[in-house]
Amino acid sequence: MTLEQLRIFVAAAELLSMTRAAERLNLTQPAVSAAIAALEERYATRLFDRIGRRLTLTEAGRLFMPEAVAVLARAALARQVLNELSGLLKGEIRIAASQTVASFWLPARMARFVTATPHIQLKLFVGNTSQAAARVLSGEADLAFVEGDVEDDLLAVEPVGGDRIGLFVGPAHPLAERSFTRKDLEAAAWVMRDQGSGTRDHVEAGLRQSGVTPENLHIVLELPSNEAALEAVEGGQLVTAVSELSAACRVGAGAVRQLDWPLNPRAFTMLRHRARTISRAVAAFKASLST
Questions:
Q1: Tens of pLDDT along 206-264?
Q2: Gap between the Cα atoms of 77 and 275, Å rounded
């Protein structure tokens, strides 16, 4: 059993797809399948059930998953110790981020850091707020950057930035050209971000504060990214609520219109595990965010 096999197994178990695991790890799909097959053959244990093109974890796979994650975390810690002992500022920083932060706030800061410290490699995992926080809790990420509220005693939470959420429609939508009320919004057809995303949580809280009852909204679509929600809005009769940062280009091009229904600003926060000591590389990246 190798660390590479464990890394491949964990990716396949999280994504339940050999193809998507290969994309995440920059491997070929046959290489991923061969690594899983080698594990199963070596220990005469089936880790996945294959139902058509779908994967599901077997009971053995479910039991093996936390052990595999723990071994990978220990290996990462061992690499960190060696880097610290070398006295050189080098190594790897594993970052998890929710989609809005990963797409519009974090890239410039990551680029600035790697330009200044080329011997440090940054690895980025993108998911929703819940997934990013889970990565820090499991030890798979050193830091997470999210826009949603996270409450967990094991996580230290620090504000690092922010944005605003806006309501957006296509240019031909009836609400684009007239004043409207709370009842108009509740009667409209909506496309929303997925449950668990920081955007969805903030939208629902902001709408409730402005007098709109989220439970009364006519939600016809739930999509996993701001870009997908805006794409759905452009040519249809839907309303969406996403970050103004993500919609700025489309608003400037006239592809979508922002409705006059302001919601409260929201904070971007950085998460780290309280019980884990951060490396010199991670400390340097944290410090770079305030410069």
A1: 999 999 999 999 999 999 888 999 999 997 899 999 999 999 999 999 999 999 998 88
A2: 13
Give backbone dihedrals phi and psi of 273, rounded to 5 degrees, phi first. -80, 125
Kindly indicate whether the domain formed by 164-264 is annotated with CATH number 3.40.190.10. Answer: yes
Residue partners of 192: CB distance under 8 A and separation at least 6: 200, 203, 217, 219, 221, 222, 223, 229, 240, 241
Non-local (6+) Cβ contacts of 211 within 8 A are 182
Domain residue extents for the chain: 1-77, 164-264
Q: Which of 3.40.50.720, 3.10.20.600, 3.40.50.970, 1.10.10.10 is the CATH number of 1-77?
A: 1.10.10.10
Distance between CA atoms of 96 and 143, rounded to whole angstroms? 6
Give residue-wise pLDDT tens across range 113-134.
998 888 888 999 998 888 899 9
Residue 224 identity: P
Is 60 exceeded by the pLDDT of residue 87?
no
The reported pTM is: 0.63
